[in-house]
Amino acid sequence: MSNKIPLSFLDLAPVPTGKTIADGIAQTVEMAQQAEQVGLNRYWMAEHHNMAGIASAATSVLLSHIGSQTDRIRIGSGGIMLPNHAPLMVAEQFGTLQALYGDRIDLGLGRAPGTDGATFQALRRQMSDAERFPQDVQELMYLLGDETDSSPVQAFPGAKSNVPIWILGSSLFGATLAAHLGLPYVFASHFAPQMLSKAIAAYREEFKPSAYLDKPYVMLAANLLLADDDATAHYHFTSAQQSFVRLRRNERGQMPKPTHDMDSIWSPAEKTMVDSALSVSFIGSVETVKPKLADFLAKYEPDELIVTANVYDQAARLHSLSLVPQLNLFTLQSAAALA
Question: Is the pTM of this model over 0.70?
Answer without folding.
Answer: yes
